[in-house]
Kinase
Amino acid sequence: VLLEPFVHQVGGHMSMMKYDEHTVCKPLVSQELSFYESLPLAMRQFTPQYKGVVSVHLKKDSLGNLTLIASPGLQTESCGRLDNAIGDSSVTIWHKRKWAASTGTGSEHTLVKWSHTQLTKTFKDSCPGKMLLRTDLQYRTDSLLEDANRNQPERNSYNPWGLHCHRQHLNRMSSKHNENKLHQFLLLENVVSKYNYPCILDLKMGTRQHGDDASEEKKARQIKKCEQSTSASLGVRVCGMQVYQADTGHFLCKDKYYGRKLSPEGFRQTLRQFLCNGNHLRMDLLEPIILRLKALLSVIRKQSSYRFYSSSLLIIYDGQEHKENTAALDNHLHFQKTNCTTSHGTNHARVDVRMIDFAHTTFKGSKCNHTTYDGPDHGYIFGLENLIKILQNISE
């Protein structure tokens, strides 16, 4: 399987790759694997479904372009046989992207073949040096997105953060380049696959971010980041965001550097912005998001010994509004009666809340356990409670 960059990655530093329409994969960390393998039943509805482990190797073509090839169930000795089977497609990092056209019908574009060198060059040209992805970057269509005939496709655009992570990841892997070396990747459910225009808020949860295994230097760095951001005051900070703007047909993107600078008031405004589609505030989403967060809160309160250091919480909804939602805006009372159904109600398909990133999660009985803690994760609970309060204020 040729791995493509996952275009909806809004945060994190590990490169998420698209394995198939419903599955993403990321480099395996044994502590995260241990978490997924012993996941408490009650938490399963709030985490991506774990689908197993896959072997990945790096392939270089004659032009020096790098690609990642996943080989389900592959052992090292059969690596050689892959070369012929893969053929030309391994030259491309992004072979094909399907995009729903603005009409809502699926139309397919074959984009230009993106080589690693092109990708790097384009980033360097468009963002000199360290300025790469700071603060207020808007999603935009890059000159890079041309089809084979040099035509610009319709103005769809990609979240630059995922490409930034992908480029860094390829650089790291290629510096130790060895075609026969197999890297293990975790296969996880793609939690945004059912949305046409996935609006995603990535929140770093808790008042402490460093894992038990962090070096003194890293620990000091993480403590400082928490103190200087809303992690200390609210127990939650913005780590990344993309929100579809119906008025322009673009996604608005924010990255972790933007999130770190926010004051508590700025955090509230950003939460509001996440629910605004460029025309109006999506009032219809507030109640289902709050209900889902409350359900998660009651599950987390019951998990003794778990510490979710450095993990994130995703809030997701579809930027494409359904006709019945706009009617609900006119009649808020009616909305409260009909849309506060139990979590099995249809309205809950429109929002999702998922915990991700468990590389530093520790719990009693974990294979990589460093410290055993008692009781629930109070830092995480503090963040969830504040998040619910802020959303309730917006709703009121």
User: Anything to note?
Assistant: The first strand starts at residue 4 and ends at 5. The CA atoms of residues 1 and 70 lie 5 Å apart. Residues 75-156, 331-346 have pLDDT under 50 and may be disordered.
